[in-house]
Specification:
The chain is mainly α and 375 residues long. Helix content is 79%, strand content 1%. It contains 15 helices and 2 strands. Strands 1-2 form a two-stranded antiparallel ribbon. The protein is globular and about 75 Å long. The protein starts with a helix and ends in a 14-residue tail after the last helix.
């Protein structure tokens, strides 16, 4: 009995230490966690490079880690190279638009939307849709804010470079020695609990590796299908819409809606000077149909496969966890909800399996290695 109390006291102390580390050293802990996740994603690259033999020459861990980081850099550079020219092109197209002629061509549909908004109480009798939209835009694009935006941008870029440099440096060592993160965690752990912590980290690494790699594959497939579908329909900026769609699709539930909305806006701004009824509406319908069909394929085939293989949780659990993540942290909370829940479930299964609630929540989880007993 006394030993059980000691066990729970030690567990409570560990939780307090982890909370204090997050609270007082948020940046450092974030760098470590991001580097750890990148090292998990990079493990397939590491295995590939270490398996290369050229005569008697064999690639060691250091060279494999460098090559893996180079692969990450190429992927990031490729994404930036794909995004930036398309965004610049979109801005140039917006700069060439004759907004006076545009207002005339859109006056009829805007009047119908304005009447609909008044009918259902979304606008009062003394409000006008165009005036309200103009006022909203002025709030977002107030010239007096440009100085603050410039200073904020410089500060953000400075922090971004520090973050990239720090994470890259840490990731190199985590890739070179895949036990380093585990050793950092084991440093403050009492010797008698080391087997359980090792087992927990092993299971967390296995499940998160499958989850993040699967998520990358899922986003890539989603982007490719969207882009190919829009190219088939002849929609301008299909690649940009596809990339944004795949990026936002990583946000559970609301991500596809955001992606489809962004796709419609890009398609709309690329065709501002054409007739609204005969040209713009068919284009928007094609974008919506493409996103809807791809989302159905993603929900019933791709996403189901990724979650069943990595998270090993009931869809209702995932839904509730994502909602709680949104409540606690907004969009970032939704993105991090599933991996965080996965980590907590593994920890609970290994350290708190005597509780019925824990056994119920983790009954679908399988271990590749037999868990050690807690003494």
């Amino acid at each position: 009995m006394i030993q059980n109390y000691r066990y729970y006291i030690a567990l409570l102390i560990a939780v307090i230490i982890v909370w204090a580390a997050f609270y007082f050293f948020t940046d450092i802990v974030s760098y470590l966690l991001i580097a750890w996740v990148l090292s998990l994603i990079g493990q397939p690259f590491m295995r590939f490079f270490k398996g290369i033999h050229i005569g008697k020459f064999k690639i060691n861990e250091s060279i494999a880690a460098i090559l893996t980081l180079i692969c990450f850099a190429f992927i990031a550079t490729g994404l930036v190279a794909a995004f930036v020219p398309l965004l610049v092109q979109q801005i140039n197209e917006l700069a060439k638009v004759d907004y006076a002629a545009l207002q005339v061509s859109l006056s009829e549909p805007i009047s119908k939307i304005d009447a609909w908004a008044h009918k259902y109480g979304m606008l009062t009798s003394n409000q006008n849709l165009i005036d309200e939209a103009t006022n909203a835009l002025k709030k977002w694009f107030d010239p007096s804010m440009f100085g603050d935006v410039f200073r904020t941008t410089l500060s953000t870029l400075s922090n971004l470079f520090v973050t990239i440099g720090s994470v890259t440096f840490i990731t190199f060592f985590f890739l070179k020695d895949d036990k380093m993160f585990l050793n950092l965690l084991l440093a403050p752990v009492p010797t008698q609990y080391e087997p359980q912590v090792r087992h927990a980290v092993s299971e967390i690494s296995r499940m998160l590796t499958r989850y993040f790699v699967g998520l990358l594959i899922q986003a890539s497939i989603f982007s490719t299908i969207i882009a190919l579908g829009l190219i088939f329909w002849g929609i301008p900026n299909a690649l940009l819409i596809g990339l944004l769609g795949g990026l936002f699709n990583t946000i559970p539930y609301i991500g596809p809606i955001i992606g489809a909305t962004m796709g419609c806006l890009i398609a709309l701004t690329s065709n501002l000077q054409v007739d609204f009824y005969s040209e713009i509406i068919p284009i928007l319908l094609k974008v919506i149909v493409t996103f809807s069909a791809t989302q159905m394929l993603d929900n019933f085939v791709i996403s189901t496969y990724v979650q069943s293989k990595s998270v090993q949780a009931h869809p209702l659990e995932i839904f509730l966890v994502v909602i709680m993540g949104a409540k606690l942290g907004g969009v970032w909370g939704m993105v991090l909800a599933i991996p965080t829940y996965t980590v907590l479930r593994v920890i609970a299964k290994i350290f708190l399996s005597e509780f019925k609630l824990v056994r119920t929540l983790t009954r679908d989880m399988t271990d590749e290695t037999a868990p050690p007993t807690i003494s």
